[in-house]
């Protein structure tokens, strides 16, 4: 909703204020990406970890939106467009990945009524199909190339390069932190030997759960491998929004 507000209200209705506060928002975005990434790294509750990672990922959205004012050049608008389109793609991708990750936690909670990472361990031994989906979504959450999580973040970083190379470097290096907390959770929950006897009694996903997870997995992979149709759909609107954001109302 916040990202939608920037696209539909802040940029087209108050472009001058958006420009005036753009550097502050960029700094706050970078703090969100970096700091919240480290906060996610120390979480012991899976749901909290995913929630904090969502905040970190939304920092890429605001970074992409407001770097347009620094990346724009009259003879070259690609940098500004990349940031805006990347922010939009990131919002769409986040809808798929975040929903999938929370569903993964929901499936585990439905069986053991616990979201604590320490409760689990070796889930792959009793739920191999479920683990396959969970690891895919976790890798998408970490921005693995070939998944939708990579496309939006990469476009935002390319747009940030046009504005300030150090913005892009800082945002890009924090992807390492994202990979760290994601892989840490995957290792503790899914891999290895069963550490809790209750995990050995878990039943794998049923047909209904499989269908929902498979639908989300298809969306994540299709958008990650071939995002062009989505980008083409939003390109005209984003180009119009760019012109509105760069037209002063004073």
General description of the model:
This protein has eleven helices and no strands. It has 250 residues and is mainly alpha-helical. It has one domain. The longest helix has 35 residues, at 78-112.
Topology:
Elements: H1 2-13, H2 15-20, H3 22-41, H4 46-66, H5 68-71, H6 78-112, H7 128-141, H8 148-163, H9 165-189, H10 207-225, H11 228-245
Describe this structure in a few short sentences.
This protein is mainly α and 250 residues long.
What percent strand? under 5%
The tally of strands reads 0
Q: Summarize the main sheet.
A: none
Portion in helices: over 70%
Order of helices and strands: HHHHHHHHHHH
How many domains, in number, for the residues? 1
Radius of gyration: 19 Å
Distance between the termini: 27 Å
Which regions are unreliable across 5 or more consecutive residues at pLDDT < 50?
Answer: none
Question: Which geometry do the CA atoms define?
Answer: elongated
| Overall mean pLDDT | 87
If helices are DSSP runs of H or I spanning 4 or more residues, what is the number of helices?
11
| Category by helix and strand content | mainly alpha
């Amino acid at each position: 909703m916040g990202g939608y507000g920037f696209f539909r209200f802040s940029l087209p209705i108050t472009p001058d204020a958006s420009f005036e506060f753009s550097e502050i928002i960029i700094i706050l975005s970078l703090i969100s990406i970096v700091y919240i990434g480290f906060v996610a790294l120390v979480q012991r509750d899976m749901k909290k970890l995913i929630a904090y990672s969502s905040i970190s990922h939304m920092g890429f959205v605001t970074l992409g939106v407001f770097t347009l004012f620094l990346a724009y050049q009259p003879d070259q608008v690609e940098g500004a467009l990349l940031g805006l389109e990347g922010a939009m793609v990131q919002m769409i991708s986040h809808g798929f990945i975040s929903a999938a990750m929370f569903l993964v936690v929901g499936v585990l909670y439905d069986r053991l009524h616990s979201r604590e990472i320490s409760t689990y361990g070796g889930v792959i031994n009793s739920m191999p199909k479920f683990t396959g989906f969970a690891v895919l979504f976790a890798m998408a959450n970490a921005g693995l190339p070939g998944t939708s999580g990579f496309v939006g973040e990469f476009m935002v970083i390319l747009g940030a390069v046009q504005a300030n190379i150090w913005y892009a470097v800082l945002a890009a290096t924090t992807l390492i932190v994202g990979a760290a907390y994601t892989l840490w959770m995957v290792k503790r929950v899914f891999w290895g030997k069963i550490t809790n006897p209750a995990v050995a009694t878990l039943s794998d996903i049923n047909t209904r759960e499989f269908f929902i997870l498979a639908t989300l997995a298809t969306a994540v992979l299709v958008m990650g491998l071939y995002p062009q149709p989505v980008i083409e759909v939003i390109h005209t609107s984003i180009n119009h929004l760019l012109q509105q954001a760069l037209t002063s109302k004073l």
